[in-house]
Automatic annotation (TrEMBL), chain A:
It comes from the Bacteria. The chain crosses the membrane at residues 7-28, 34-55. It comes from Polymorphospora rubra. The keyword Transmembrane helix applies. This is DUF3817 domain-containing protein. The keyword Transmembrane helix applies. Keywords: Membrane, Transmembrane, Transmembrane helix.
UniProtKB/TrEMBL annotation, chain B:
The keyword Transmembrane helix applies. Keywords: Membrane, Transmembrane, Transmembrane helix. The lineage of its organism: Bacteria, Bacillati, Actinomycetota, Actinomycetes, Micromonosporales. This is Uncharacterized protein. It comes from Polymorphospora rubra. The chain crosses the membrane at residues 28-46, 52-72, 92-112.
Length: 92, 119
């Protein structure tokens, strides 16, 4: 796996975890400190995934665009990274 | 190598210098990670995290860091591995210009601070 795809995978998993924590908190206990702490963290992770997907070299346009979708971008990017890994070498 | 330098024609490039500059790019790029870390810590301590200019500066810094790490450094490596006809070097120059421009905008934001609660 290319280092770029590895980085994108790790970042998108972290983004997905952060958004899951936020939504879970919203649906259940609704603790204000959790929102205050995880909110900015999720923002930073979203930004990191978006910038990495937009500026990384040799990525499909769909991988770049779907990474920008709020909330679901992490899931899309995890799936897209899987597809990019299986991509034939000749296409590089 | 003085003989090699004397034999060099104008416009010809020096691989040694290019290698050194590539190393400097990577070194400074990694060292520059301190900038956003210290910046975010300062913004938290001063309670300024919600201000618009900080958010804009963080986005611009992330884009600049992405350009450096994902475009400029790999392209430098490629250019060193396979020296081309100069087109890839012009592209590199353009990217470096965009990077510098982003940093300049961030510096201006730090001074002007639009949307700041207190000056």
């Amino acid at each position: 796996m290319r280092p770029l795809l590895r980085a994108l995978e790790v970042l998108s998993i972290l983004e997905l975890v952060s958004v899951a924590v936020l939504l879970l908190n919203l649906a259940t206990v609704h603790l204000r400190p959790v929102t205050a702490a995880i909110g900015p963290v999720h923002g930073a992770l979203y930004l990191a995934v978006a910038v990495t997907a937009l500026l990384g070299r040799d990525l499909w346009p769909r991988t770049r665009l779907l990474a920008l979708v709020p909330v679901a971008g992490g899931v899309f990017t995890i799936l897209n990274v899987r597809r990019e890994v299986r991509r034939p070498v000749a296409a590089r | 190598m003085p003989a090699g330098r004397a034999a060099r024609r104008p416009g010809e490039r020096n691989v040694g210098v290019a290698r050194l500059l590539h190393r400097i790019t990577r070194g400074y790029g990694i060292a520059a990670l301190v900038v956003p870390v210290v910046g975010i810590a300062l913004a938290l301590v001063q309670g300024r995290m919600g201000e618009v200019w900080i958010t804009v500066a963080m986005v611009l810094t992330a884009v600049a860091g992405g350009i450096l790490a994902l475009q400029i450094a790999p392209r430098q490596r490629d250019a060193l591995a396979t020296p081309g006809d100069g087109r890839q070097l012009r592209r590199l120059g353009m990217l470096a210009g965009v990077f510098n421009l982003l940093w300049a905008v961030v510096v201006v934001l730090m001074i002007v601070r639009p949307g700041s609660d207190y000056s």
